[in-house]
Every structure is written in C-alpha cells, then in structure tokens.
Design goal:
With about 1300 residues, the chain is an all-alpha fold. The chain is built from 74 helices and two strands.
C-alpha cells in the first residue's frame, strides 16, 4: 500500500492524530506534500493536514504562502499565519508582519483579529518590555484603538506607565467609556484590574455628590465589582473607602459587593475593611447599613461574617473601632457584641471557641473594659439574645440569667413559665434549680409542647454545669420517658444532635448507656414511625461527624463503638438519614472509613437483598463528600456490579441506567481500572451500558471500540435501547426510552476529534436525516444537536451538501408543524431550529466561493421572523471576506428594490451590520444619507440615528465632509416628531433601557462636548414634543453642555406658567443644582439665579396677584434646600446671606428660611442667631407656628440639621436644656427629647425627670399636653423596659 493510499485509508478510518503521526513518520514527505497541495485547493481537511505538516517541518515560506492565498478558508489562513509567528524570534520582524497585516485591505477582518489575539501567547513577546506598547502606538496612528480589538490585544500587556500613556492618547479617562461586554474590558479586568479600578474611581468622582447615583452605578456594574473583589480585594476596598468618604455621614452605607463578599474581604483586606466599617458605623451608633436592591437608604446589617483566618489582633481592633472611635459605647456597648459574635454563635469547634474566648473575654472584657463594668452594662441592657450569645461565657451568662430571672419575677406575679424556664436554663444546675424545673414541669404537665421543651432546657442547664448533673439529669429523663409520648422523646434525641462539642467531649461518652436506653424506649414505642428511626440514626451519624474532635484515643473508640451499635441495632431498610444533610468531609478520614465499613457490612447487604438501589445511592450522596476516594466504597461498587447485578434477575429488573448512573460513575472513577471495567460492563453484563455518558467518554478515549462504533452507526439511524439489544441480550436492565445521535450531545461536543472521518460522516447524517425528524425528541435537544455540527470542521463540505439537499424538507416540516401546534420549550421550536440550520453554513470556515453562495441563498430567505439569524450569518460572512468585496455585495442588496419589501424588522437588523464598518466614513454618503433622505419608516429612522452615533469618532469633526453630513442629519433628528428618534440621541435602545451616549464610548471629551451642545441641547427647544423636552432636561449630559445657555433656558422656564413650563421647570432647576454640585457654577451663581426668579415673581405677584408664583417660589426653595450637601465656610456665608434676603422679601417664607439656616448651622451660635432673627421679625403666634414646623427637621436623621445630629447624647441633652431654659422654645426640642434622648440607656434619668416635670407644669398648653401624654421608657430603678 502506497503512502497516499495509507493516508486516504486513515482519512476515513483513523483519527486526525493518526494521520498526523503517519505523515510525520514518513522519511520522505515530498510525495505527501505534493499530494496535499493538490487536494488543499478544494479540501478543507487536507489543507489542515498540509498546514500541520509545514508546522512540524517549520517550513516558514510555505506557511506564509498559505497565509497570503486569498482563495483558501480564512481560519486556516489565520492558523498558518499564527504558526509562522510562533516560529519567529525577531520582534522587529513580527512587528512589521503584524502592522502590514492589519493595514492590508485584502485581508479579512477575522484574520486580523486572530493574528492580534495570538500575540501574547508568543514566548519572545511575553518577555518584551516594549513590543505591545510600540505596536499599539503604530496601529493607533492609523486606526481607531477599538478597530480589530487593537486595544484589547495590546494595552493589557503593557506596563502601568505605558497603559496610562495609551489611555491618555485614546482619550479614555473613565470606565464608563468602555463596554463591560467588550473584549477590551474583559482583558483589562483579567490582566490589569488596578487600572480598571482607577478608571472606575474617575467615574465615581463625578457621582460623589449623589448617593442615589452612586448606588445606581454600583448596581449597574455589579458583575464588574464582583470580579474585581476577587482580583484586587484591597484596592476595591480602598475604592469603596474613597467613594463613601465623599458622601454625607447619613448617606454612608456598605455597597452590595462589599456586603456579599465581606468574609472574603475580611480575609484578604482586613485593614481596609476595618477602615471602611469605621466610615459607615460612625453616623448612628449601633447601626450599620448596606445597600439593598429594594431600598436606596439601605438595610440594617445584623452581624459581620468573619473568616477563620481573622486574627485576634483584628478582632480586637475592629471591636474598639466600633466601641471607641464610632462612639457605640455611648448608647449601648452590647450592640458591638451582637455585631461581632452573632454570626459565630453556632460554631463549636474547640480551637475556634478557645480563640473567641481569648480575644473577647480575656483581652477585651477583662483586660480592656473590665469584667465588672461590662457585667453592669450587661445587667442594664441585656436580654435573652445576649444569653444565647454568651452561652460559652459562664462568667457573663450566669449573672445575666440571674438578673433577668429576678426582673421577670419583679415585673409581675403572672409571668410566663416558659420564659422563666428558658432563663433558668442559662444558669448553673443545683438542687434548688432542679426543683424549680420540676415545679414548672408539674404545672405544665398536661401540655406536650411545653413539656418536651422543658426536657431540653433541663438538660441544657445540666450541660452548662458539670458531669455529675449531666449524669443525674439523664437518669431522671430516662425514667420519665418510660411513660412519655413519642414526640417528646424524639424532640430530646434531636436536641442531642444539635448540642455543642463540649457536651460530647466531656460528658456524653460516660452516659451512652442512658442514651441507649432512651433510644430503646423510642424504638419500641407503639407510636414509632420512620421519622423515629431517622432521628436515632442521625444521632449516630452526628457522633461520627464529630469523631475527629476527640484527641483521646480511648474516647474515640467509645464513640466509634457506640455509633456502630446504633446503626446495627436500629437501622431498618428504607430509612433515610441523616435528616440534617450533614456529610462526612474528606478530611475526617477515621469517620469516613468507620462509616463506610458500617454501610458495607451492616446496611448495604440489607438494601441489596430488598433491591433498594436508590436508597444505596441516597446514603452515599447524603453521607460522603467525596465517596469515590474511599477504597471500601470502590470495592463495594465493584462487587455490586460484578457479583450481585450480574447474577440477580431481580436486581437487573430494578436497575435503571439513567436513574442509577451515580453507581456507574463511581465504578469508573479510577483511571487505572476504568477501561477494564467498561469492557466487563459491555461484554459480561449488557451492551445497554453504552448509553451511559461516562461509558461513552471512556470508549471514545480508549480507541479500542471503533469496530463496535462503526457497527452501531453504519445504518445512519439513532442509537437506542432497542438497537443495542440486537447486539446482545443478556439481562433485563431498564433504561428510559431515548435516542441519541450516535453519542450523547455533550460527548460529541467535547470529544469530536476522537471520531474517525467515517464516524463523523455517519453522525452528521444521523443528526440531519433522523434525529431532527423524530417528533419525540425535545426541541432544545434538537437545537443542541444542530450546534454540534459546527464541531466537525473536516466534514464542512459534506454537511453543507446535506443541508442544501434537505433544505426543502426543513421548510416543509416547519410549515406542517406550525399549522398544528408549536410549543416553545425554553425558547426553542421547530421554526427556530429551521432558522438556525438555515444560517448554520455561514458560520463554517468555507472556501470563499462557497461563502458567496451562502450569502446569495440567505438573501432570498430573509424575512421578519428570521432576520436576527440571517443578520448573524451575514456578520459571520463579512468577517471572512475583505471589507471591499463584502460591502460591494451588501450595498447592492441594500439598494435593491426588494430590500424594502422584507419588512421593518428585517431592514433594521440588516442595517445594523454597518456598525462594524463605523470607521469607513464613506458609507455615510453612499448608504446612510440616501436612506435618511428617502424618509423611511420612523422606526428605521430611529435605527439609523443609533447607527450614526457609531460613526462619530474624530475629534476635528469639521475636516471630514462625511462627518459634516452626520451632524446635519443628527440636527434634523433632534427635532423629529417621532419620539423614539429623539430618544435615540440619548442612548435609548427602544427596548426599555437607556445607556448614556450609547455608541460614543471611548470618544474624546471634545467630540462629546460638540455632540451635547450641537444635538442634545437642541432638543431642549423641541418645537412639538413636550415629552422630548422632558427627556432632554432629564438626560442632558451636564459634563459637556453649554452652562450659560442652559441657565438662561432654565430661568425662562421658571418664569413661565403655561402647561409646558409646569412640566419642565423642576427638571430645569434640578439641572442648575446639578451644575453647582459638579462645581460648574459657584454658590453665588445659584443664589443669584434664585433671587432673579424671586424678584421677578414678586413683581408679578404685586401686579397680577397670581398665587401660582408664590407656590413656585416655595417649591423652588424646597428643592434647593434639599440639594445642599457638604459646603465650606464661604458657601455657608453666601447661602446664609441669601436666606436672610428671602426673609426680607417675603416674611411668610420663614419656615423654608429656617429649614435652610438649620442645614447651614455648624454651631449653637448659628441656631441662636436664627432664632433671634425670627423672634424679632415674626409675631409670637407665627413664631410658635414656625418653631413647630422646624421641630421635625431637628429630630430627623437625614442631614436636615447636621450640627445637632452629630452631637452625642449628653450634648444633645444640654442643647435641649438650653433651648428650654435660655431660649424659651421647648416645643422646638420636645420630639428630639422624646425620640433621641429619653429613650437612651446612658442618659441621666433624674435630670430627664426634672426636665419633663418642668414641661408638664408649663403655661404653654400645647407643650403641657404633649408632656402629659408622653410615657417614659424606663422603670423606677432606672433600667429600660425590654420593649424599648
């Protein structure tokens, strides 16, 4: 057999790797090379082999020749070019080759992308310090950085300084200029996360004035932040710190990406997290909020999630940051404890408990705060929550339990026995306490629910005391349970499985006899159910889980023996456990081996005898993390198949290949034995195992079953159980009646290269001629099968011929099916599959002549239904053709008389293809402008506007005639009568979402400024649509607009009172306030703007007596006051002068003036001055009215009066006394006293009583009424009521 014949034989019957090895083994490859050259002109498969041959022989000349041959498929040309690059060592030569390739107009886009994409994989370029920077510089002098993804394939591999220079040259200053879905973004995140964080910071600098906008930004970029948290936790925390520090104190909350990843961040960036917590915890002691999707103001965080690695030093530092720095100790220091301990209260590992005791009790309570001082605080404010928190700290728990019990008794003689027993259980057990429990039990003896709870409380109290009490209580419980109901016994046994480790380590091993007696009582109970057995077995399993915690070998053996005894004595077939889904971790090797032996020796034989295969699987899955690692389990699985299943007809009738596939996976988990076991499954048991996905994977990888595979595929029909039964009938195994196209689709997708050429050909025919025709196969599976066809690149020509041959059949089947019923299953129906098949060949790497045939075929099939699929197919073709050749055919199609008849949806889809040619400005005059001038349908005009935005990409727009046409068209669009056309100028995509300046990302600020001033601002004066003007005022880019013009337009709207102005003036004024926040205008400018409105409105009011002007003045001032954030002294003085001038113009605006002055106040003197002005200017009655109005702002926590809100409790109380005694305005501070002072535990209750008594005796009847109606929240002894 000649070498050519051998090659052709391997081509049909061998794998790709077989042919490669054969060609490389030839001593003289000349004949083969000539033969492959001849075939490569038409054969994709042989062209690939020729390239592989040149790669192996390092034939650079022929590789570059293939790369430059434009009649060959582009992916193969790209592979040849990449192979040539990998053989180069001269960076200058590579640089020259890449630049020439990108510049060459006769090379398709796909090749250019592929060449750029492979560069960072070349070794000599990886170690270069300047190659990618120099290449980026060279290419971006000719092309836009976004073209061919130049930015994505060069910039991420530069140094930090080089990246900063390139970004500056490309006018990229913020992340908002980059699309998250772009390749550039993903590469930056992967290789340069710190640069991404720097760009994000530049985004957020412009949003720091507005908490809502910052939260919107966090939500919009949620996935981005989640990626960056993993990449650079310290830097992302630092970013959050900088952003939050810019906000007002009352606006500071944790972002969601910090809250959701707090454990990871506490682990990787503890210092930064502590600093961040300091910021958000300082405003309102005792409360930390995080950003929630349902509430911009934030949701209260209940506790911290700490990693196991969090150090003792960090625990202490964070504690005292909250306790001292954030002043949490002033109100209630126990809030700190709740935040620090709540999340860890259920962790019972000995090492963790010792660590927690050291940092919290030893180092914080005893050394820093003082035990007695903390206990005193605990007794004042402690509750049952704190009893649970201090369960492992008897020094704190016992005094609190005793104190709480005494409080409960003192409060009322009719206290709840349940509460009393609960508090009693936290103390130490003695005879007196035990007798109290017995008394409670006697009183509640008829109530089963209370009785069963009491048993656990008594036991809990004994465990908290000592061994002797545990022994005594268990003996007592054992006797009680002889005549107890089963529910109470089960509840107690469940409680045993939830106690902490100390119980098992110290007490229970000496009490197993008592526990066994209780189990026997439950097991032999007349009311016993399967739940009873599950509870008992779960307890045995729980003992095994904690087996590793016993350092004493003797104790371990006791536990092991007792657990084994439980399983042997109490397991009954078909009992499920553990019911709490706690598995044995792989690290617990002793427990895993012990339990595996118990299962194999005592439990599995019972299950096999009953043919309960599913129960075996459930036990394995529920009890082990990685069961395949245990040799005992492996031996059992082997014996199950080759000793039990092979010989038992009853087992075979129950065993289901699909349902019980876990057992097959376990059998084949070992790489060393899997092939031998597959062979035994097929030959000794049944060929039906071929349908298992793991068996198929091993069969394909082994290369030993080609004959069997060929036999199964040669009839070109799907494989099912019936077909396999013809090969061999040995057993009666069950399998779901299903068909597969030779192999499972997942296998075909991943292991297609393990199939011979003949087998691939069979499978293609099976999919197209049989699998897709079967009406019983779900549509989503059919769609997956069609997608698999792309994998068989060697069979592209065969697939293409079959699709073209059967095209009419596909269309007919679609019509027939739609005429009856089409049920869309997860987005897939017969019509969808047909459209996908229609566009599939365009995604193949075909020869150019075949691609053009596909283009012509698709043109004739285009309609509104398949427009998306055909558009994607056109896009795929366009990337494989030169721009010139594709645009020639494309323009002919666009200009044809048939194009408009395809429908609006189809027209828009095809027109959007022009976006990828956005850097070819000649298309503006050749295609886009004629289309616009033809006055197409309004939806197409809106589509054209969105396309036009992508064509704006030069900073000097006046030098390009084509771009001048764009501006002219966009100016026409700005006054278009169809709203979607106007909205498109603000990034509205027509689907309900809006992205600011969509299509203009990455442009220089100069271009953006021209666009905003020339186009968007034009819409402010839209002649017919008020909605368009509303949209313009809302979405106008404040960063780039002409401020003076906008201010003049806003002033005009504020002075008008027609319907349009009523809809627009608020938006216009908010834009002015936004300019101020962005520091585009000064505080004087804002004050003069408002004064100009007030002066004008005052004249109107005097002349025309128009009350509308007065209302607008009030609304305008209210908007202004609400917008004030952080200001300096100069701004404060300016606004103060402005406020007093308003009071002079209109005395009835005193409430608004007061609201403004309170927001500006930074000291008591400022407030005193305000009150003095009001007292001298207002009548007594109106003064009291104003004071009552201002009272709510003083009491609010939203920044309405920053001076008062930042005071601590004592300072607020002193301020209130000053208002009452010195200024004689008690109504001004009554709500402040009631809501923020009287209800605080640390305040001096005696002074409060004196002040309250004084107000109750006031001559002001309104004040006296409020004081008399108020009920103080503390008891006679000075402690707070628990309800408060």
């Amino acid at each position: 057999m000649s070498s050519i014949e051998k090659y052709e034989l391997l081509k049909r019957e061998g794998l790709l790797i077989d042919r490669v090895k054969y060609i490389l083994s030839l001593s003289d490859k000349t004949e083969m090379e000539i033969y492959l050259k001849t075939l490569s002109v038409k054969s994709y498969d042989d062209l690939q082999m020729l390239i592989l041959l040149y790669k192996s022989t390092k034939n650079q000349m022929n590789l570059i020749k293939i790369f430059k041959t434009d009649s060959l498929p582009v992916r193969q040309r790209a592979d040849a070019g990449k192979a040539w690059l990998r053989l180069q060592t001269d960076q200058k030569q590579i640089h020259k080759f890449v630049v020439e390739t990108i510049i060459d107009l006769n090379i398709p886009r796909l090749i250019k992308h592929q060449i750029l994409k492979c560069l960072h994989h070349i070794h000599c370029l990886k170690i270069s310090l300047t190659f990618f920077y120099d290449l980026a510089q060279s290419l971006t002098q000719i092309f836009h950085h976004d073209e061919f993804n130049i930015d994505a394939h060069t910039l991420p591999f530069c140094s930090k300084d080089q990246i900063i220079k390139l970004l500056s040259q490309w006018s990229i200053t913020s992340y908002n200029q980059i699309s998250f879905s772009s390749s550039f973004s993903s590469k930056l995140i992967r290789y340069q996360p710190l640069i991404v964080i720097q760009l994000i910071n530049n985004d957020l600098i412009h949003k720091h004035f507005d908490n809502n906008k910052m939260i919107i930004y966090w939500r919009k970029n949620k996935k981005l932040f989640e990626l960056l948290v993993k990449k650079e936790p310290k830097a992302i925390c630092r970013l959050a710190i900088e952003c939050i520090s810019r906000l007002e104190n009352h606006q500071r909350i944790l972002p969601t990406f910090i809250f959701s990843q707090q454990e990871h961040l506490f682990n990787k960036a503890p210092n930064e997290m502590i600093e961040l917590i300091t910021l958000v915890a300082s405003y309102q002691p005792g409360i930390i909020k995080y950003e929630a999707s349902w509430d911009y103001s934030g949701t209260i965080l209940g506790s911290f999630s700490f990693p196991r690695s969090f150090s003792i030093e960090n625990y202490i530092r964070l504690f005292f940051v909250l306790y001292d720095t954030c002043n949490w100790s002033i109100n209630n220091s126990l809030d700190v404890v709740v935040y620090m301990l709540s999340n860890d209260v259920n962790i019972h590992e000995i090492s963790f408990l010792r660590k927690r005791r050291k940092w919290f009790f030893d180092m914080i309570i005893q050394e820093r705060i003082g035990k007695q001082e903390f206990v005193n605080e605990l007794l004042k404010h402690g509750s049952e929550i704190h009893l649970r928190l201090f369960k492992d700290f008897p020094e704190l728990r016992i005094p609190l339990a005793q104190h709480t019990l005494q409080q409960l008794i003192d409060q009322s003689n009719s206290y709840s026995l349940d509460s009393y027993a609960s508090f009693l259980s936290y103390g130490l057990m003695n005879l007196e306490i035990f007798n109290k429990f017995l008394s409670i039990l006697q009183q509640n003896g008829s109530n089963l629910s209370k009785r069963k709870h009491l048993y656990t409380l008594i036991f809990q109290c004994a465990i908290s005391t000592d061994q002797e009490n545990v022994n005594h209580v268990l003996q007592w419980i054992q006797k009680r349970f002889i005549n107890e109901q089963l529910t109470a016994i089960e509840y107690f046994l469940q409680h045993l499985s939830s106690e902490n480790n100390r119980c098992y380590l110290e007490y229970l091993p000496d009490n197993f006899q008592a526990i066994e007696t209780i189990m026997n009582i439950a097991f032999n109970h007349l009311q016993r159910t399967s739940d009873t057995l599950e509870i008992i077995l779960t307890y045995g399993f729980f003992l095994l889980v904690h087996l590793e915690h016993y350092q004493d070998r003797q104790q371990q053996e006791k536990i092991q023996e007792f657990a084994s005894k439980i399983f042997k004595e109490y397991y009954i077939v078909n009992t499920n456990f553990p019911n709490n889904y706690q598995t044995l971790p792989e690290s617990s090797s002793i427990a895993c081996n012990v339990f595996a032996n118990i299962l194999i020796s005592d439990i599995f034989p019972k299950l096999i005898s009953k043919c309960f295969i599913t129960e075996i699987i459930n036990l394995l899955i529920r009890c082990f993390d990685n069961m395949w690692c245990l040799p005992e389990i492996d031996k059992f699985i082997y014996s199950f198949f080759f000793e039990h299943l092979i010989n038992s007809v009853e087992l075979q009738s129950i065993f289901d290949i699909d349902e019980h596939s876990v057992l097959i996976s376990l059998l084949l988990s070992s790489r060393s034995t899997r092939l031998e076991r597959v062979d035994r499954l097929l030959n000794e048991i049944d060929y039906i195992f071929f349908l298992d996905i793991e068996v198929q994977e091993i069969i394909l990888q082994s290369h030993q079953y080609h004959q069997l595979i060929n036999k199964l595929l040669e009839d070109e029909k799907c494989i099912d159980a019936t077909k396999l039964s013809k090969q061999q009938v040995k057993t009666c195994l069950k399998i779901t009646n299903k068909k597969i196209p030779g192999f499972h689709l997942k296998i075909l997708n991943n292991y297609y290269n393990q199939l011979t050429g003949q087998q691939q050909e069979y499978i293609i025919k099976i999919i197209l001629n049989d699998y897709l025709q079967d009406t019983e196969i779900p549509n989503p599976e059919k769609l997956k099968a069609v997608r698999v066809l792309r994998r068989f690149s060697h069979m592209y020509q065969n697939t293409l011929e079959l699709i073209e041959k059967n095209q009419d059949d596909f269309l007919l089947r679609t019509i027939d099916t739609t005429s009856t019923t089409i049920k869309s299953i997860r987005g897939a129906n017969i019509q969808t599959i047909n459209y996908y098949i229609l566009s599939l060949p365009a995604t193949f790497d075909l020869f150019p002549q075949d691609l053009w045939k596909q283009f012509d075929r698709l043109k004739t099939q285009l309609n509104s239904s398949n427009a998306t699929y055909i558009k994607d197919a056109f896009l795929s073709i366009s990337r494989k053709m030169t721009d010139e050749s594709f645009l020639k055919h494309y323009i002919e199609f666009i200009r044809s008389e048939h194009f408009g008849k395809f429908g609006i949806t189809a027209n828009k889809a095809i027109l959007r293809l022009l976006i990828q040619y956005r850097f070819n400005t000649s298309l503006i005059t050749s295609i886009l402008k004629p289309l616009w001038d033809s006055h197409p349908h309004p939806d197409i005009r809106a589509c054209l506007v969105r396309i036009f935005l992508h064509f704006i990409h030069k900073s000097n727009v006046n030098d390009d005639r084509n771009e001048l046409e764009i501006w002219s068209i966009l100016e026409q669009a700005a006054h278009d009568d169809y709203r979607p056309v106007v909205y498109a100028l603000f990034g509205f995509d027509g689907k309900g979402s809006c992205r600011t300046l969509s299509g203009l990302e990455g442009l220089s600020s100069e271009v953006l400024e021209i666009f905003v001033r020339r186009i968007q601002m034009k819409i402010l004066d839209h002649p017919t649509s008020t909605n368009a003007r509303i949209w313009a005022w809302s979405e106008l880019e404040s960063e780039y607009c002409s401020i003076n013009i906008v201010i003049d337009k806003a002033r005009q709207l504020c002075l008008q009172f027609d319907n349009d102005a009523n809809d627009l003036w608020k938006l216009a004024f908010k834009k002015i306030l936004l300019f101020y926040k962005l520091k585009k205008i000064s505080c004087n400018d804002v004050a003069k703007f408002i004064e100009s409105i007030i002066y004008y409105d005052k004249d109107i009011d005097l002349n025309q007596n128009d009350v509308h002007t007065y209302h607008r003045m009030n609304e305008l001032l209210d908007l202004f006051i609400s917008s004030i954030g952080k200001i300096d002294d100069e701004q404060r003085q300016c606004f103060r002068t402005f406020a007093l001038s308003i009071l002079q113009f209109e005395i009835t605006m005193a409430p608004l003036v007061g609201k403004l002055l309170m927001k500006l106040a930074r000291s008591r003197d400022d407030l005193e001055e305000m009150l003095t002005v009001f007292q001298s200017s207002l009548s007594p009655v109106y003064f009291e009215h104003v004071i009552i109005n201002l009272e709510s702002y003083l009491n609010a926590n939203d920044g309405s009066c920053p001076y008062v809100q930042q005071l601590n409790i004592e300072e607020k109380f002193d301020f209130a006394q000053w208002c009452i005694n010195t200024m004689n305005i008690p109504l001004f501070v009554f709500d402040l006293l009631k809501n923020q002072i009287f209800n605080k535990a640390s305040i001096n209750k005696q002074q409060c009583q004196i002040l309250l008594r004084q107000m109750r005796q006031s001559q002001n009847l309104l004040l006296r009424q409020k004081a008399l109606q108020y009920k103080v929240p503390w008891k006679q002894d000075g402690t707070m009521n628990n309800d408060n």
